[in-house]
Write a structure and sequence with these properties.
With 173 residues, the protein is mainly alpha-helical. It is built from 9 helices and no strands. Helix 4 runs antiparallel to helix 5, helix 4 packs across helix 6 and helix 8 runs antiparallel to helix 9. It is globular, with a radius of gyration of 17 Å.
């Protein structure tokens, strides 16, 4: 993100993230963002053509953080799906509004930095011995579990750690 944006644009994205994390995507508007920054909304358009462009940078931010999180987990426990899944889950649950913004709509691939999506996927792909289908299945499982947890869809007495362990074992059999 740093190379793509001017210092002021980075400041805007940081404020957008703060607003998103505090209030959710429904409250992220150019007006509320401008208010957060203490400027008039039209001033934002000097840096971003529209709200979608700000959201693209937030998606890029999540993918960058996901890549960093998974790379760190891989360095600690090479080849461990459990370590990758745990790191993925922890990061997503720590940033639920950002996670939802980035994953509950089509990925703006053409607008993202080149190679970023691949970078975020590489630790999982390596843990799956370069089996792309398995990596996609594991990611789908992890995403499904995370998004259901974010939305509070599991019963209060559900042992989610056990469900994660069982699901990963079934996929890695």
């Amino acid at each position: 993100m740093a190379d793509r944006l001017t210092p002021r644009a980075r400041e805007i994205v940081t404020a957008a993230r703060d607003l998103l994390e505090e209030s959710g995507a429904a409250h992220l508007t150019m007006r509320t963002l401008a208010d957060r920054l203490g400027i008039k909304a039209p001033s934002l358009y000097k840096h971003f053509p529209d709200k979608q462009a700000v959201e693209v940078e937030l998606v890029a931010l999540l993918l960058t953080e996901t890549a960093e999180t998974l790379e760190a987990a891989e360095a600690r426990a090479p080849g461990s799906l459990e370590a990758l899944a745990g790191a993925y889950r922890d990061h997503a649950l720590a940033h639920p509004h950002l996670y939802r913004l980035a994953t509950e709509r089509p990925l703006p691939r053409a607008a993202l930095p080149a190679g970023l999506e691949d970078r975020a996927a590489l630790p999982l792909l390596r843990a799956c011995a370069d089996d792309m289908d398995l990596a996609r299945a594991v990611w789908a499982f992890a995403h499904g579990m995370v998004i259901l947890e974010i939305h509070g869809r599991f019963p209060a007495d559900a042992d989610l750690d056990a469900a994660w362990k069982r699901g990963l074992a079934a996929l890695h059999a």
